[in-house]
Specification:
The protein is mainly beta and about 130 residues long. About 5% of the residues lie in helices and about 30% in strands.
Length: about 130
């Protein structure tokens, strides 16, 4: 946890990040900032979330449903989103706020997403609020 950024832990609040000095952690990391008491998300569910994604060390999000005021819904664990999400969101309950650090191999790979400002070696950091699952 020491190598992860500090984030405000209030479910539903627009996330703010405070990054530690040094490199992003290696591998896929998930920290449950708030433990929800709703149903557990399972692979194959359709999950509705609010999320805020920044490149490690950055301040401006490359994508944020908080900024759009519009949660996103998609199948989880079934390849509809990046691997880092498929592997970290299932197993957490509705009402949870997750902090996820996703290295390139679980994100957009060596190509990155240049138009979004994501380089091939960039680690992505998301705050994910799990709103519902079905």
């Amino acid at each position: 946890m020491a190598d992860m950024p500090k984030v405000n832990a209030e479910f539903g609040a627009t996330p703010t990040f405070e990054f530690p000095d040094g490199e992003a952690p290696k591998g896929l990391k998930v920290v449950e900032l708030v433990e929800g008491d709703g149903p557990m998300v399972r692979r194959g569910d359709t999950v509705t979330v609010n999320y805020h994604g920044v490149v490690w060390g950055g301040t401006d999000p490359f994508d944020s449903s908080f900024a759009r005021h519009q949660p996103a819904s998609f199948g989880i664990g079934v390849g509809q989103v990046i691997k880092g999400w498929d592997q970290t969101v299932p197993g957490h309950n509705v009402g949870s706020r997750l902090l996820v650090s996703i290295p390139p191999e679980y994100g957009y790979g060596s190509r990155g997403v240049p138009q979004a400002g994501i380089g091939g070696g960039d680690t992505l950091v998301f705050v994910i609020d799990i709103i519902s699952t079905r």
